[in-house]
Amino acid sequence: MNGTAVTIVLLLIAVTLALTARAARRNRSTDDHYVAGGRIGGLQNGLALAGDQLSAASFLGITGAVALTGFNGFYLAVGVPAAYLLMLMVIAEPLRNLGRYTLADAVAARFEGRGLRTAMAVATLVISIIYMVIQFVGAGLLAQLLLGVDFPVAVVVIGALMTVYILIGGMVGTTYIQVFKAVVLIVTVSVLLVLVTAKTGGNPLGAMRDAADRFGDGVIAPAHGDTTKAVDTVSLTLGMVLGMMGLPHVMVRFLTVRDGRAARDSAQVAMWIFAVFFAVLPVFGYAALNLVGRAKIVGDNKAGNLAAPRLAEEIGGNLLFSVTAAVVMVTILAVLAGLAIASSGAIAHDLYTTVLKRGEVSPRGQLLVGRIAGVAISVVAILVALWAKELNIAFLGNVAFAVAASTTTPVLVLTIYWSGLNRYGAVAGLVGGLVSSVGLVLVGPDVLGDDHLFPLSIPALLTVPFGFLCAWAASVATRGRAEAAGAPYRELARRAFPDGRQTPAGSGV
Amino acid sequence: MTDPHEARSPRARPAEARHPGRPLDGRDAEIARHKRVVLASAGATVAAFMAFPLLTLFTGALDGVAGGVGAGYAAGLVVIIGPVAGATAYRRWASRAEAAPGPGAGARVDPGAGR
Predict the structure, then answer these.
(1) For the residues of A297-340, what is the DSSP string, one character each?
(2) Which domain holds residue A151?
(3) Best interface-test mutation with A: which of B54, B73, B77, B81 has the largest number of A CBs within 10 A?
């Protein structure tokens, strides 16, 4: 066991628990629990968005992928800023104005119906559980590799912490933790960048140049050849850039802000952080290749997930390695807290309060059910993670984007922007997108191996248009059905795009 | 079914329900214009972004290396930084649109109505 790393991890966890205890004083109502009372400002929410989005998979996965596969690893880094620009322009503000606790609330602002609410909740849960399992299994394996802690112990401790965060702190606590995580991650990445730059003669791109000198220009140039892999990469990037708008744990952050301007400001703050973060990851990847070496990176982990911590060890000794490992663990905890809030909202608010009880639950009852749902999700996630330890689940991260891009994204976009959508179309879009995206993954190469029936690992290229097509076709086919028409589109548009001059002044970053 | 949120939020009523007879067409035109700009910009963003993987994966246009930096990475940096510039421009546009007096001034709804 690495004593220094464990000590720093415990120190950072203590800070998150202190933040949670502080947040508990502001976590008293259902509004507080799910959306921090809608009081979060632009800067704070921007940092929290960065804390929510910048996962260990990004930091470790992209650095390792660039170290081992060169330019191919870079495709995972380029999509997030563009995805956030789309989110900012298309969804953020209308969602903030229409939604309350969950994504389903925004759709319910136009269409009533328990079937639609259930379909939205199920899509939310599928996306969130996929994401959560990756985080849990990844955290357990990293704790084993980085800290020397046994997998089951790590998973149970992480699950317990996640439960405490959401049970006591709710969305207020989650926001504090995500802001804290974003700050420590930014500081750590900055220190790493300074040290790597110092090692390469003060040139931030020196690691790339050195890699080209040592291994040839091919290591920093795009690779060509396998057409199926190339199409898969196009599908992956399309899923990422469109799927972000449908990720429940990310999008609910826009329900926490105090007004539309704060929603815009927060997306902009997050995008600045992403731009810097994703631009420097390839530098770390090549620095790891040069300084740590391919053999050691692969020896630690076949996917190269320890390239970043090993780079930190190489240039800053055990102390920087321990800090990096600790920051990675806190990163996972912050992402898990956001996922747990989004999932518990889908269960408690959408399924229990609205679908099962038809809204007949007191505010106190809603808060209680939300907390119970949070605990239940933690227990289920721990059990699934313990079961999934031996499975190869690395591919699931990109599947979550594809599922979101094929289900929640089409329905949210069409609800806000297309007057012709009706309730049947919304349900058809969700069900069609969910069945096609999950189904094609199940018959694809990541699950069936060489016996696959569908050639792409990430089916977004087909399933995103299919999700939109299902929503359009069902809406057109049932155009005359008055019971499916929902609230007048004109009214919804006025709520989604209110006259901005009523936005309170001084609420910017 | 009654959405509990709607049931608890009298502010969620549309403006015309509170102010019958106020002019509404100008506000609708503003919204339609906003939607056109946003959707056109979003389409352009997706097209510009997807050009990057298409060019790098299927052509040799970005295969070059100069001074130890790959052309693909240089283009990738533009793909990463470009959206931040786009976001800045969008925020300015949205702020100007909020500040400008519009024909639908009489038909406002509360921002965040229904929250």
Answers:
(1) HHHH-TT-TTHHHHHHHHHHHHHHHHHHHHHHHHHHHHHHHHHH
(2) 3-393
(3) B73
Angle at A318 between CA A313 and CA A320, to 5 degrees: 65
- ipTM of model: 0.88
CA of B61: which chain A residue's CA is closest?
A: A222
Tell me the chain B residues in contact with residue A77 when contact means C-beta distances shorter than 8 Å: 76, 80
Establish if B1 belongs to a structural domain. no
Judging contacts by C-beta atoms under 8 Å, the chain B residues touching residue A220 are: 65, 68-70, 72-73
d(CA A386, CA A133): 10
Instruction: Give the separation between CA A437 and CA B53, rounded to whole angstroms.
Output: 21
Tally the domains of chain A. Answer: 1
> Cα Rg for chain A, rounded, in angstroms?
22
**Nearest-angstrom CA–CA distance, A134 and A117:** 26
Residues A436-487 pLDDT 10s: 999 999 999 988 889 999 999 999 999 999 999 999 999 999 998 988 998 9
> In the block, which residue shows the tokens 């040290």?
A195
Distance CA A94, CA A106 (A): 9
Structure tokens at A451: 């016996």
Domain count for chain B: 1
Tell me if A225 is assigned to some domain: yes
Position A415 in a domain: no
Least confident of A434-438, B18-22, B36-40: B18-22
How far is A300 from A6, CA to CA, in rounded Å? 19
Look up tokens 């959508």; give the residue: A421
User: Which chain B residue has the Cα nearest residue A88?
Assistant: B87
Quote the CA–CA distance of A18 and A177 in Å, as a whole number: 10
Question: What CATH code is carried by the domain that includes residue A372?
Answer: 1.20.1730.10
Q: Is residue A479 part of a domain?
A: no
Range of the domain at B95: 25-102
Evaluate whether residue B55 is within a structural domain.
Answer: yes
Place of tokens 């792409």: A456
A408: in domain: no
Q: Cα A391 from chain centroid?
A: 21
